[in-house]
Queue: 3 jobs
Job 1
Amino acid sequence: MPVRAEHFVQYVYKRQPPSGAHGKGRLRTTLDAGLQQIVQTILDNRLEDLSNRGAKNGAVLIVDHRRNEILAWVNSGAGLDDVPASWIDAVTTPRQPGSTLKPLLYALTLEKGWTAATMVDDSPLSEPVGRGLHSYHNYSRIHYGPLRVREALGNSLNIPAVRAIQFVGVDEFLACLHELGIRSLQQHPDYYGDGLALGNGEITLLELVQAYTVLARQGTYHPLKFFMAEEFRQEETCRIFSAETASLIGNILSDPEARRLEFGNGGLLRFPVQTAVKTGTSSDYRDAWAVGFNHGFTVGVWVGNLDHDATDGITGANGPALVLRSVMAELNRHLETRPLYLSPRLVQAEICRDTGLQADGHCTSLSEWFVPGNGPKTETVQAKDLRPVYLRHPTQGMQLAMDPRIADDREAFVFRLANLKTNRKVDWYVDDKRVATTRTGEYVWPLQRGVHSVRARMWPAGSGQFQDT
């Protein structure tokens, strides 16, 4: 039996072993004993380095996605008495995934019409939660304004991700995650809301790695193998994303230039062999993740505390990323390496760096990949232009509190429309009385006590017809 693989064996015994997978008292799994031991050492050594920052637990899962086989299933300490909660299998324990779901979200946006050059607005954003408002912010607290999807994903920015899930819909993204094998998210879409884009649910390392193998395998889902048996036949495979979408996401995640705003051009995320890499950090630094894939292997790493204690500022980039890098180096050591798959159907075109539009010779340009038939635009098409216009603030049933420290006649609330194109006439109505006309999707309303209704009437340019919301 492979070295120190107790958790894996416990897990597979809960499943029905296939005929021929065991005999003479042995369970024939796909684990590589030598690799298991090496990764165990890598993980334990890294956790020792991080112990002064409050991290006590970790896990690593390695998959050969060419054969769909799990090669290593490693928990820190592997049952040692001096490692807290080492008897708990961190590979199958649900935790908050932070930003690691963003590549899967952006893959869905590409399937629905976005491109790597679609412009997404990274500006301050407040969204309704229940009867109140929640303000979103990026990790660095910096806002970059309009950005291309490649930059938004590469820099793992939160506000563009929220706009992305608003485009595809929380229900559709949740359904997509289920198709990818992430079944721990069993609540209604309304339970997660837009925060699902930022990892507010809980999933397992096993589910996360399974989902990333879909990106690594050109968009197709293949159930992972646990047993070595010729008689074993896995369930049917299925296509989740197109090969063009999957390879484009991999191309973005392996592009150092795409992440320079938040991560710089160098560092641990720049691998010597082309590797798609994503990190994630949950609220209060309780979970730190690093997941990636190259031409042959998909690897996921989790670092944190199984008792849910927060760490001292450990992020995916400064914690598990070094484990991921070391594991990938070990996997590549004795193999002929290759670049990531890039669909031959993708076409390259020159675009303006700052607008995402087709290059016209009057802008700083760069090359971008596009799916045939969905190339660069000649006029600005931002993400908001692909979505319906609706009243974002206020929402149905929203409750506002007057601030006793401010005079009532100085308090105000911003009415805001989502996805409205610029320079459109809007009439604003409160309690069915028109109170203002603007040329933007916002109006600052003097706050008044009582129960009120709000309505916006939009007048498309050059049209005598209106649309109410």
Note: The longest strand covers residues 57-64.
Job 2
Amino acid sequence: MRILLCSNFYYRRGGDCTYLLALQRLLEQHGHETAVFSMRHPQNLACPQEPYFVDHLDYAELNRAKNPANAVKVLQRSIWSNQARRRIARLIADWKPDLAHLQNIHAYLTPAIIGPLRRAGVPMVWTLHDYKLICPNDNFYSNGRICEECKGGRYWRCARNRCKKNSFAASTVVALEAAVHRWLGVGKPVGRFIAPSHFVKGKFTECGYAPDRIAVMPHFLETPPPSATAGSYGLYAGTLMPFKGVGTLLQALAKASPHPFHILGGGAMLEEYRRQARELGLEQVVFRGFLSGAELSAALAGAAYAVVPSEWWETFSYAAQEPLARGLPVIAANLGALPELVVDGQTGLLFPAGNAAALAEQIDRLWGDAGLRRRLGAQAREFTCAKCDAERYYRELMDLYAAVRQTPPRA
């Protein structure tokens, strides 16, 4: 089968790109041909389809140089990209895919690519990595809290609340984007959506999506080796953003029994969290920055346990899945999709999101009991490797692809 993978970025940038690259490897290992449609970017992997990619766009740079021309460029590219529409039409004509599998496409490729796929009779599957189709700010999180005020298409509330970057202008753009896409019904031609968790499927069905159009398929994992050591530190690995709960984690570490703790990741809040750690006297906390590849594997191998303190509705969580699959117990917030991976008392421990005192108690409980860590870790690896098995995922994906190809395209 010839499968066209559509994604805003083509390098390991976040969870959506981690999935994209793993999916491409999985499909090619089973003899399928893949092509990619994306945006040009200095960090992209080499790709034969790069001449078709849309031009690189840096919204942060455009926002720094505020002027009417840049404002028009943002509106033209972020809501409906005619360049993406034209270029994917050329790629479809030249490469002739049997199926398109969409990842995150908003803001850079935009749903403008769906029309050419539909007109060419290319069936579509769309993996839901976030809530962008039902939340203008894509994460149901605004001003330090979970927020569902836009449910039912009341997107003007996003602008009123300044949900996007605490900016009225940015929030107005994403509110307008959501309204236009809802009016156009951009998801209607898509044959099936893939939700990585039951929680995500539940949120989309609450917002009007038909349950039979959404398949729940937890992200697969290329099984890593088990951690060979007992581990000598606690670990957080993820983006350093407010909704990831790192502030709560630092407060918890200040209350818990002192022990080494490593924080991996970059992001807008890195320096602020370093400042908070100094003020809390957390000399045992080491900020190691963004790691990938062998460095990330080594960091995971040396850990005793991991913490995922998110304060938004995680759609899945590679930050939980990867340690669990290595046999590390995980302490996670009892929120969103996390309890589907971190089963309290079986694969790890849960705590109420945002509650630093409760998190500190769970940290002390796990750090102080090597036997508990071993038991939970062994169960975590067995559970996660079975739940996220790549071959099982492939079989389910082929069944889904076959069903979509046999279903008449939607208008």
Note: The mean pLDDT is 93.
Job 3
Amino acid sequence: MKILFMGTPDFAVESLRRLVEGGYNVVGVITMPDKPIGRHQTELSASPVKKYAVAQGIPVLQPERLKAPEFLEELRALRADLQIVVAFRMLPEAVWAMPRLGTFNLHAALLPQYRGAAPINWAIINGDTETGITTFFLDHEIDTGSVIQRVPVPILDTDNVENVHDKLMILGADLVVETVDNIIAGTVKPIPQSELQTDEPLRPAPKIFKETCRIPWEKGVKACYDFVRGLSPYPAAWTELVQADKRTVLKVYATEKVFDTPTESVGTLVQDGRKSLRGALKDGYLVLKEVQLAGKKRMRVADFLCGFHADGTERVE
């Protein structure tokens, strides 16, 4: 059976690697075009999936437009029986309907929950204690196709995006291989997502932008703690550090939560010598552990405080 693989980031490489090392016949890889990098944007950087595929001698296609006639012709020439998508982009029907066995996607959530581009981030931001991985056949609407298999994965209170990403990447590769084996064996029985939906409201997972990452100090300790770890280490939660009339962007990568009854107003920064820094909230404090000032490197708060000149009026907004 001929398999065509589509993906771009590191998350997808693990699934591709498992297929290649497992002896499956991967006849081609589709990934994003190389990105311009460098100060003058004159150098091109290949995606992690492309780098792996080239190293393995697998043909690589990098279409600008997925509906382009020349790309569709190249796709047909590969005569794939099955297409697998892991962290790529929305496909037109002309692509996903092409192979005789269809196209399935690996999604980093328990569908139908968290349809969208950033399921890992939003599950943590929302304080969920469980996420998972799902394989499903592609359909006309994004992330709505019939489910093949799902595997739940716990989210620990200390997990951030990096931890959960890495867990789902490994377990996702296992599920991709298992799904391929079941499709080959003819034992797959897809389930419409409507049959898996409970009374719990569906939560979306839209793309995250810079303004999305601003810490919502008004929401309280747990919400802010979950918010920070749901964006750490990338793209990173941020706030504005206010000193008199000066405002500086401060990224926050790690925090601890302390429930208390503060006497300070929400957003007030409280410093304990050169040891700790915490922001007052309506129900306690968010203790800052790792931060990064604009133009500086990421550092522990103890190191940050060595060069931080406080005058007692500091706030975060």
Note: The mean pLDDT is 95.
